[in-house]
Design goal:
The chain has one domain: Sandwich (Jelly Rolls). Helices cover 13% and strands 38% of the residues. The radius of gyration is 15 Å and the shape is globular.
């Protein structure tokens, strides 16, 4: 019974898109593997106000990876995050169900520019968090990190 309950918990979406679809891997990405999630880890840069900051982000491509997202995680480094890529672009909807960490959700448009930042998403909330326009990806960082680094609409994101 416990095994069945645990397997059901793993498929519930949390801090993940509410309607995730599979997306291709980024071309030419240098990857390693995250020790907790087992997901590929790739470099990602955000350029804003003439400064570039580099992150190492987990890449959640499949439905299952996106449904799991960062739920139940209790720690993430300041230069770590999770990237949810999509093809084709669409208006994205996330929630924080079963997500312990407060996060900034950064929605990225087809031009690789930030569309909007949903700062300080509330842990465990089931309220939808939406992109303001069709997006090709969402980047999740620790809450407050976007403000600290000056990441705003129009900032450039590359991976």
């Amino acid at each position: 019974m416990r095994a069945l309950l645990w397997s059901l918990l793993l498929v519930l979406p949390a801090c993940s898109p509410q309607a995730a679809e599979r997306s291709p891997a980024p071309a030419g990405a240098e990857a390693s593997v995250h020790p907790v999630s087992g997901l590929p880890v790739i470099p990602l840069t955000v350029t804003t106000q003439g400064r570039t900051h580099t992150f190492r982000v987990e890449l959640a491509r499949s439905d299952a990876e996106q449904a799991q997202g960062l739920m139940f995680r209790t720690a993430m480094g300041p230069d770590e995050g999770m990237l949810f890529p999509y093809d084709p672009p669409r208006v994205l909807s996330f929630w924080m169900k079963n997500t312990v960490l407060s996060l900034d959700l950064i929605f990225i448009g087809p031009d690789r520019r930030v569309i909007n930042v949903a700062a300080n998403a509330v842990p465990y909330s089931e309220a939808p968090i939406l992109s303001d326009a069709p997006a090709i990806a969402t980047l999740e960082l620790n809450a407050g990190r976007a403000k600290e680094l000056g990441i705003v609409a129009g900032s450039r994101v590359d991976w």
